[in-house]
Amino acid sequence: MTVSKDKIHLIRIFLLVFTLSAILNGCGNSTPTQDPEPITETGFYLNTVVSITIYDSSDTSLLTESLNICKQYEDQLSRTIPTSEISRLNNGELTDEQGISHLSADTAKLIQEGLSYAELSDGAFDITIGPVSSLWDFTSEDPSIPDDADIQAKLPLVGYKKVALDGESIHFDTEGMQLDLGAIAKGYIADRIKDHLVSKDVKSAIINLGGNVLCIGEKPDGTPFKIGVQKPFADRNETITTVDVSDYSVVSSGIYERHFEKDGRNYHHILDPSTGYPYDNGLTSVTILSPTSTEGDGLSTTCFALGLDAGMALINETEDVEAAFISSDGKIHYSSGFPRT
């Protein structure tokens, strides 16, 4: 059986999950006789490896329930699953005679979140990128650059101002528009898993959705979790810096995850809605520390799209949020309150 480059990459993610778990278990001054052994379960959802680790409970049903939540939202929000709510919306299957589509409450809420970041960035981040992003395939064994004519033909369908969302009803001003929630959905799902675990009295856990890391509380001994920020283009277990986190989210967006090279140029999945091609702005990644993973997901892509100067200015104006920008020369640029270790 041939193992694809994408699968090898996912195996590396899987190994990092357990490496990180082992590091966390070995830190601090907890007493084994007082605290239960951590429980962990992994699964493959959202085109990545998902890991849930709980430190203060031995109830494995909580892990199963968490992964089921992940699966439920994947089936609802994925652009590539034909039966998902987003696919049916994009294909016009939810549209009535007045051109209005009716959504579930969760989907409408997530779309509203996405539109808010589009507004915040003046369209540098745009969830209506769907018609263009569907032309790119970064997981193929032999990826290729879409024809420029195809990209130019789809660009008029992109534009968040062409979306009217009223409660749970949505209308597109231009026929053929499509949403792509991939830049924000993982964060939203992580937050929903956290809500569920907290409702079950979990006070110490890590939710890892393929690099979107959300911590519940802190380690059982009262010390923060130590989360590594990956070194761009290095193996998943090689970090460029670490951060101590308690009850916070750590989310990174970068050009080294889903990408390919052609003729010496790197093509990555963070697309510029104004051109249809990947951003080329001197950044390799942005890592966001925030209270919620939805915010981290939205801001990491938004700040990457805005570039170093505008992105840093936005972070320094946003309460309870910090960021680390890594530029193409390998330098790390920290926001004013980033907790360096």
Question: Overview of this structure, please?
Answer:
With 341 residues, this protein is an alpha+beta fold. It is 32% helix and 23% strand. Helix 7 (185-199) packs antiparallel against helix 8 (293-306). The chain is globular, with a radius of gyration of 20 Å. The chain starts with a helix and ends in a 7-residue tail after the last strand.
- Give the end-to-end Cα distance, rounded to a whole number of Å: 43 Å
CA gyration radius, whole angstroms: 20 Å
Parts with pLDDT < 50 across at least 5 consecutive residues: 1-33
Number of helices: 9
Give the oligomeric state. Answer: single chain
CATH superfamily of the largest domain: ApbE-like domains
Helix-strand string: HEEHHEHHHEEHEEEEEEEEHHEE
CATH class of the largest domain: Alpha Beta
- Stated plainly, the CATH topology of the largest domain is called T-fold
Q: Summarize model confidence as the mean pLDDT.
A: 88
Which bin fits the share of residues in helices?
25-40%
Return the CATH architecture of the largest domain: Roll
Largest beta-sheet details: 8 strands, antiparallel
| Percentage of residues in DSSP E strands | 15-25%
- For the secondary structure, the number of strands is 15
Pairing-aware structural class of the strands and helices?
A: alpha+beta
Overall shape: globular
Which characteristics define this entry?
alpha+beta; T-fold; disordered N terminus; 2 domains; 341 residues; globular; eight-stranded antiparallel β-sheet; three-stranded antiparallel β-sheet; 9 helices
